[in-house]
Here is the input.
Amino acid sequence: MSYSLLDFLTLVGSLGMFLFGMKMMSEALQKVAGGRMRKILSAMTSNRFLGVVTGFLVTTIIQSSSATTVMVVSFVNAGLMTLVESIGVIMGANIGTTITGWLITLLGFKVNISAYALPLIGLGLPLIFSKSTTRRSWGEFLVGFALLFLGLDFLKGAVPDINQNPEVLSFLQHYTNLGFGSTLIFLFIGTLLTVVIQSSSATMALTFVMCNQGWISFELAAAMVMGENIGTTITANVAAAVGNVSAKRAARVHFLFNMLGVVWMLAIFTFFIDGVNSIVIRHNGISPTENPAAIPTALAIFHTSFNILNVLIFIWFVPLFEKVVMKMVPSHETEEEEFRLKFITTGMLSTAELSIMQARKELHFFGKHSKKMFGFVRKLMDEQKDKKFNKIYTRIEKYEDICDNVEVEIANYLTQVNQGKLSDLGRKRSRAMLELVDDLESIGDSNFNLARTINRMRSGKIQFSEEILKKLELMFDLVDESLLIMTENLDDNVDAVNISRAKELEMEINNYRNQLKNEHLDNIKNGKYSYEAGIIFNDLFSECEKLADYVINVSEALYNVKPQ
Here is the structure.
């Protein structure tokens, strides 16, 4: 056989260049439009139809349905969109991914784009070394675009010639004349290739090249395209594996939607293929079943019409999809108390700018977690029954451990994000978030210190007068409000950081701490309470003031990285 190992490695290298170009182009566009995409996704998902349009637009922009669906799963995980809203976006992403097929059809096979690839690299290379983040991203886009089509051109040349290497086709011939069985086999091949390569676009390119070289017929190529629709759902399901229940449900919807689409298409596959064949003959004058040159166009038409029809059919069954996946992935009451990053998914690490947004959502949860923990401290102060007191104290202790774990996990995640390509603002935000994590963990420590002080107070059977308790209650109210402002500031959906109220509260808490300190010294002298009780009282209001210092640090750090 004249097809050597070197030829095979050339084929793999060509595919690698195509994939690298696609990845580079996609990530460059995501850096340019990352923030805008988040706003589009959060604003344009009020109903399922807008969701479809949004999914289509985002996937068209970033040229990756996998990136869109992973993004959607992450946003559902983050509570940025509901499960119902995500279903429309996922459906739209399936239509958006058909643009790749048209790009390859119109440019990769009809225009010798590879002839312009090197000039495009020459144009993009100086931009990559620019100091402007936006210009660097556009340079990466141009180089990625050029590499994508260079890879496609090399791929066409690296695929073995059937006439010179008939043995290459011989194993395929065993599976091309089995009727409906052949359709199922090549559907499975398309699914398997997409799972292995982790890119439906790359599998689509391989399918087009195989048709162009005469390896497989139009019908079998269409079957592979359907398989790619199933295979591309694996990425989102892998990303959801570490997510919460809502994220898993969104990923299951993607799988169900694509799987059911393939099922109904298989039922009318022959008639549908004949319809596409007629359209191509009417417009091009040649049949894709007879002339391989017509197959790319026919495949693009099949892929687009199949996905559009799929959406038109199933968009009316969104509520049913929701009910089915809720039964497939039931929620568990115990999940809330278990440590788990709720909003960060490993699938987003490939896109640093979007990863920062995910980390921000995780910090918002961390902030709410800290406020909830302070609520337990207040309950602990008022609890009289030993059994309930011990239960609340154990819960605060557990929350403190969670704070330590969350700090480590978010810090590790942000460290990985910092290794990616970030804009100047993104890098500034990432550094600020690393500082925030430390302050949020310190809030958890202060909460636990308050709980331990209350436990000492209870163990020592120390009781305060109604007047002292009211003063502590006022201090707790001020800290509670400062924590509320902090969590609101951590929410990425708000337009501005409420720094003025945060500073006012910090000043009020400091002044009140000073007032209590002066009164405390007078109370000790006048014998209003014992020295032991005075230590407890002093520890409580001093720790509250220390906790508030960490709270204002968070709001100030957020204010300093807000775009002006």
User: Anything to note?
Assistant: The radius of gyration is 30 Å. The chain is about 80% helix and 0% strand.
